[in-house]
Amino acid sequence: MLRFIVLTLCVSTTLSACANTNTTAGGINDPNEAANRRVHEFNKRVDKALLSPASNGYGTIIPSPVRSGVSNFADNLSLPNDVINNTLQGKIPEAGSSLVRFALNTVFGIGGFFDPATAAGMARHDTDFGETLHVWGAGEGAYTEMPFFGPSTTRDAYGFAVDVVLDPFFVVTREPARYIGGVAYVVNKMGERYEYDATVDSILYDSADSYAQARILYLQNRRFRLGMQGEETYVDPEFDPYEDPYADF
Question: Considering the domain boundaries, does residue 15 fall inside one?
Answer without folding.
Answer: no
